[in-house]
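FORM 12-B: Structure-to-Sequence Request
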């Protein structure tokens, strides 16, 4: 018998390999972000948070407008980006999954309705690309070739590839913010506060607000990462069923299912012989 879980194991493994793969292309979009925040340290000849004069920039990250305001804007955009990925993948998956319904009494027989994507009117009314996202998706998209690809809105046939990269880059941006803000700013501010080294601090009045604000940014990135597994699972389902079923994964899953069935049959024969 065919074990469907073996099919999805292959899909999850394949997509996860792409998400966790680190290459220069992955980090290139993060360079401006790192350079912007690092400019405060470089202006004071601070090499890193471990430098002897590291406390001289404590408080300056929040009190430097051309660093702090773009950082706040980045948090807003990053949050909107993560929520958009989550919402779009959940909406597409919802169109592809059958719906289990019961009659009004709640104890009657259950009926499994076909996926909503099969209803032409529902499919025509479904829109997964809001107006604010079209300027990004349309230049990067391709015309859809089937009803499944139409669910990706303006991204069309390029939707699966585009959103796998979108999930990947957003995930690594959150990781970079947690590591960078946490180690380079928050940890340094807390060390300055706990060590009683306020005389070495560049801007003592902004030290506590900076620790709280950038600590909040770290927590915000952690919260967004908590959505990443569900976004990833929804993406994997939405791009591996119906018209996007992967033949290579089906073949491997079939082979593994047959091997497991043969093993079980062999064990059953051995058990019968032992009796």
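FORM 12-B RESPONSE
SEQUENCE OUT:
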């Amino acid at each position: 018998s065919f074990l469907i879980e073996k099919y999805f194991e292959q899909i999850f493994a394949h997509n996860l390999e792409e998400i966790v793969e680190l290459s220069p292309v992955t980090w290139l979009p993060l360079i401006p972000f790192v350079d912007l925040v690092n400019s405060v340290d470089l202006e004071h000849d601070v090499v890193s948070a471990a430098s002897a004069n590291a406390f001289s920039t404590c408080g300056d990250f929040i009190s430097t407008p051309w660093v702090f305001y773009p950082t706040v804007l980045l948090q807003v955009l990053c949050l909107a980006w993560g929520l958009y990925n989550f919402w779009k993948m959940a909406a597409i998956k919802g169109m592809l999954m059958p719906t289990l319904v019961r009659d009004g009494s709640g104890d009657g027989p259950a009926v499994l309705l076909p996926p909503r994507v099969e209803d032409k009117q529902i499919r025509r009314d479904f829109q997964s690309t809001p107006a604010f996202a079209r300027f990004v998706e349309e230049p990067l998209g391709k015309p859809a070739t089937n009803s499944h690809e139409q669910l990706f809105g303006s991204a069309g046939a390029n939707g699966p590839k585009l959103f796998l990269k979108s999930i990947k880059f957003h995930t690594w941006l959150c990781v970079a913010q947690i590591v960078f803000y946490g180690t380079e700013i928050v940890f340094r501010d807390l060390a300055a506060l706990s060590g009683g080294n306020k005389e070495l601090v560049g801007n003592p009045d902004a030290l506590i607000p900076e620790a709280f604000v950038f600590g909040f940014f770290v927590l915000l990135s952690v919260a967004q990462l908590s959505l990443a597994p569900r976004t990833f699972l929804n993406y994997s389902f939405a791009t591996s069923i119906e018209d996007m079923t992967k033949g290579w994964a089906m073949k491997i899953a079939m082979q593994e299912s047959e091997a497991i069935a043969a093993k079980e049959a062999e064990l059953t024969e051995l058990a019968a012989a032992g009796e």
